[in-house]
Recover the amino acids of this structure.
């Protein structure tokens, strides 16, 4: 199971939100590239980036810090937030992103997801963010009647690289991930599922890994607060899973 350290970008800084609320912001580093390098130095093999301003604006806003991270770090990175057309997808991949994450458009324009996945195999993921099992869009500001599992299943034949499932009510709250819902989603589709929201301890990572069906986990606030030591977590995940 891959652990993805998260760098959420707002106004050029690395921040964390609580429950996706832009008014509940904590700034952890005003140099996102330096933060990314620190994660890489600790041994991470992927980075998870989010353009928070872009998610609300519908177009990239924090391009400069993202580009600085890509130049500074040798590991692959995935980015979500404000990516809603083919031109933006192609531009980011040309700049060196390994994977783009499509969230809002997965609900509003699923044909774009399919088109992008065909054009860029292995480089398009879908971000499904939910409250109570229902998908939220536009920076989590708008709730829909679309159920997460139904939307995920609709992309089974699209060739997307991964689904990133975020339980919004767990995100940034340090209360642990929604393991049951994430594992249920992973069992419902053949697409690799990455858990996000509330991953805040070694116990959380162990529980996610031990489901045997979750491909990855994203953690942010816990890494900044020191509740989760990245190097220790990576060592733990590299150990063989107990069969007992």
């Amino acid at each position: 199971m891959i652990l993805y350290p998260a760098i959420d970008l707002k106004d050029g800084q690395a921040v964390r939100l609580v429950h996706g609320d832009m008014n509940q912001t904590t700034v952890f580093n005003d140099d996102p590239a330096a933060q990314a390098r620190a994660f890489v130095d600790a041994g991470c093999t992927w980075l998870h980036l989010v353009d928070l301003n872009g998610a609300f604006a519908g177009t990239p806003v924090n391009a400069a810090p993202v580009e600085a991270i890509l130049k500074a770090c040798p590991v692959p990175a995935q980015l979500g937030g404000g990516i809603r057309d083919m031109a933006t997808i192609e531009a980011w991949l040309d700049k060196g992103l390994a994977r783009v994450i499509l969230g809002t458009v997965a609900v509003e324009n699923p044909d774009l997801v399919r088109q992008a996945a065909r054009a860029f195999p292995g480089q398009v993921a879908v971000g499904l963010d939910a409250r109570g099992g229902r998908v939220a869009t536009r920076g989590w500001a708008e709730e829909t009647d679309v159920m997460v599992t139904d939307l995920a299943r609709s992309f089974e034949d699209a060739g997307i690289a991964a689904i990133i499932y975020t339980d919004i009510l767990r995100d940034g709250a340090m209360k642990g991930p929604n393991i049951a819902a994430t594992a249920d989603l992973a069992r419902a589709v053949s697409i690799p599922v990455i858990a996000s929201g509330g991953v805040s301890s070694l116990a959380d990572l162990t529980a996610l890994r031990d489901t045997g069906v979750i491909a990855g986990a994203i953690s942010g606030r816990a890494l900044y607060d020191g509740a989760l030591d990245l190097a220790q977590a990576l060592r733990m995940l590299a150990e063989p899973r107990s069969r007992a």
In short: The CA atoms of residues 33 and 69 lie 4 Å apart. The two ends are 18 Å apart (CA to CA).
